[in-house]
Amino acid sequence: MPYDFDLFVIGGGSGGVRCARIAAGHGARVAVAEERFWGGTCVNVGCVPKKLMVMAAEYGMAAQDSHGFGWDAVPVQHHWAALIAAKDREVGRLNGIYRRLLDGSGCTVFETRATFLDAHTLDVGGQRVTADRIVIATGGRPVRPDFPGAGHAIVSDDAFALPDLPRHIVLLGGGYIAVEFAGIFAGLGAKVDLVYRQPLPLRGFDQDLRTALAESMAASGIRLHPCASIVSVVEGCGSKLVALSNGRVLHADLVFTAIGRRPHTAGLGLAQAGVATDGSGAVCVHGQAETSVPNIFAIGDVTDRLNLTPVAIAEGHSLAERLFGAGPRDWALDAVATAVFSSPPIATVGLTEAEAAARGPADIYLTRFTPMRHILSCRARKTLMKLVVCQQTQRVLGAHMLGEDAPEIVQGLSIAINCGATKPDFDRTVGIHPTAAEEFVTLRTRTRVALAPTVEEIDAEGTPADLMGAAEMGVGAAE
Prior knowledge:
The protein is of the alpha/beta class. The chain folds into three domains: 5-142 and 262-324, FAD/NAD(P)-binding domain (3-Layer(bba) Sandwich); 150-259, FAD/NAD(P)-binding domain, CATH 3.50.50; 338-473, Enolase-like, domain 1 (2-Layer Sandwich). Helices cover 33% and strands 23% of the residues. It has 15 helices and 23 strands. α3 packs antiparallel against α4. It starts with a strand and ends in a 6-residue tail after the last helix. 44% of the residues are buried.
């Protein structure tokens, strides 16, 4: 039977828009439906506005640091409303770009919700539409907590439209969103308490990075509450009383929960189309974005795999090329670099020390130093750099950094690691002096050898990652 469209994309985020544009460029009749805002989470309530806010916080620290370089900078005051207005202008500009890209590529645009009626039929804002192939690219949404008084707390989507900067914030969560906003608010002058269930923030990251970040956050004035969670929030007397599981009670103007994100699949009608999901609501995929239904595909955060904007873009581009072009582009997704825009930022690519050790002996090269800027500024901030190397082949399996410009530096290293560079390749590379980045090519002395834990050690301590944290960092089991 003839269909209204060759391809229908549900979701106007980065992955969905890229998939639609590439497919339309190959002559496909393409439609896209977006019920919320063009550009998805990243452009509107994610990486783009969040990084602008990180930059705003850094300006305040730079003004303080300038004293060490002879500048007589007077105390300055930040104007929250001016930042939010500037952020909104930039987000609006990007929204328009995304919409114009679709219009310019010849896509049909629906600014409404689309839900499945069957495997080839959608209800699009009350209109019945059919498509040969359908792509689910609806992304994710923040998880809202259910403790007593949770209605008094906000999630990350809400943080970008606060009317004022709160004076005292309690943040719940140990993931990248929580640590990023902790740095933002602290850098803008608020008092911040960060509450998280693990002994260290950023579960799943390299243990040395986790420890160094916790130390840096504490040095910046953020009060850390590890191994704790919020049990209730009570509103009263102009502030909120936040009770923690460890018995402490905190007073705050704002309670901000960042306890994870969930695939946005509720109400899409996936069951009517026969699309399988897992327990969290994520669309189950295999191979090249295939779902349980042959003509339906899923890309990006809705699959809950590598929840990164560039990965969603790569998946969307590759899928469109495979369905309508000469063949999919080859994207390197085995070692995807990622960054946490904490204060200072983290960037990482490849295997952690624990992951590498589980595969065989790994040589660890690690350095920690005060960067040149802070020798004069006297800010208590360290840089950490680390290489994880396969002992047998000398291939560099992972690179990890905490410190200023870490995302910019590790982006370049990710090319080398994806190309299979070895430690001798790093050693014979001449560095740029004086830079922090040159340390990655001057790490000559091995710090230690990482080995997989024995069965007895795992039984006694937990998982291999737990053991690595306890044995090497002098702290309790990590997870």
